[in-house]
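FAQ
Q: What does a multi-component entry look like?
A: The components come first, one per line:
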Amino acid sequence: MLLAAEGLVCGYGAADEILHGAALTVRSGEMVAIIGPNGAGKSTLLKAVAGMIRLKSGTIRLNGTAVERISARERARLGIAFVPQEANIFPSMTVSENLEMGGFLEPSATRRRVSALFERFPILAEKKRTTARTLSGGQRQVLAMAMALMVAPTLLLLDEPSAGLAPLAAGQLFSAIASIHREGTAIAMVEQNALAALALADRGLVLVDGRPVREGEARAMAADPEVRRLFLGQQDLPLAGGSAPGPTPHRSTAIATRPPDPSGPGPHPLI
Amino acid sequence: MSFLQALVNGALAGAVLALPALGFNTVYAVLRFPNFAIASIATAGAYAGWIANVLWGWPAPPALLVAFVAAGAVGATTDALALRPLRLRGPLTAAIGSVALDLLLQNALRFGFGNDPRGYDLPVFRDWRLAGISIGPQEVEDAGLAFITMTALFLLLRFTRIGKTMRAVADNASLAESKGIDPARVAWIANGVGFGLAGIGGTLVALDTSLDPLTGFRVLLSIFAAAVVGGLGSIPGAIAGAFMIGIGEELSTLALAPTYRTAIGFLAILVVLSFRPRGLLGERAY
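Then the predicted structure of the entire assembly, as tokens:
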């Protein structure tokens, strides 16, 4: 097992617990789609695995090594690459500089990987001297993913890569993700577009109220009437057998039309 | 004094002021709090420059290098020892701690060097006169050295790996950490470089005025005003702000008694915070 995270409990404050025993397993080379209603803790689960949020309890093993107590930086060294949904680029730096920082841990491979990524994503080559903040939403997401690929990660964590993208851009991004997966990189992806995510993934994980309520083969899950009812915008019913409260407002599976702001809180440009 | 003379004097003063302002903004961009101890750290740099120049007999450029190293070391070490624990409690706590640190350093310098003003051992030149404007060769040299230092900072940030990691942390600290960049190490480097610049700036200010334990403190308001006007955390902003404050202070002497020149800094901060809180070139309001 590449990643085995169990019993994760954490949140953003004493009174605000988001994960109540969440779990995530990813086998080597496997792609897992994490789906669930709004506020289920999907993004928090990825952040917990990446080390961006402190755990109250739970264990995270990467290739058998316990990593729950080490920093995000040390987890990155072990091969975990996290692509946040927002604030996932360095906005005042150029596309090339962003890639260089993405490959910070493996500087000797920078030149080779940058040219490989420029071949894979020609838009980045075209914009290599452009300041990242001027990129479109889709271009930013491509850059963010390319930055994660600068270190040849063993586990790629993608947090809603298609959020805020137009259908065409989202489609292109999904095909890029599929090809990264085909090359053998293990991926755990949180996605609001549940159908698209399950179509790409090997396995699906349904998270409700910070707990895993269903896990299984992605194709079967996509065909599951209950999952379809919940995540394909048909009816809003709680999952059978789940002790968790019913998923309150869930997102439609249509491509989100949220205005893109992947640059996050805003930069402090040094130059 | 003519308008043109005030403009030239202001530009020369602005070039010197730009260095501590750059230092202030470099530290702000990476560590996210205003470190007011920069005043006494700049003074400490000026004393180090004085030791190199007067006691060791070194000329100005290598003495400035000594000032850079000494101020950078004092700034980075005091930050790690005194302010790092306070940063965890928020930027305001760290900022207040930096005021206390400034007083501590100022009095340590007073204890070590006394209150008497010191002078550097540099040749005195007659002012140049050009079209009715008089220009001091020392001021021109100071501005030239300031310009060289600014260029070096730009090259560092633009082209070196260390500089790029500093920009990355300034842009997005948590993303930088997730890419494997060590924020504590970058903080050391940013403090070293930022306060090093303040040390050079402090020496140049002391060359132009006098060296005593309050040398840096007297220009603290101007430094802070330059940083706020240009945009806290912005490198081009610090330079633009320093020239605006430098020229503004000189121009004010055309209409007001020179004692009021420091009011220009207050006025500039007031106007900028009222109408454009992020400053001229800053990216976000604070």
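Q: Is there any commentary attached?
A: Sometimes. For this entry: Strands of chain A lie at 3-13, 16-26, 31-35, 55-62, 65-66, 80-83, 155-159, 186-190, 203-208, 211-217.
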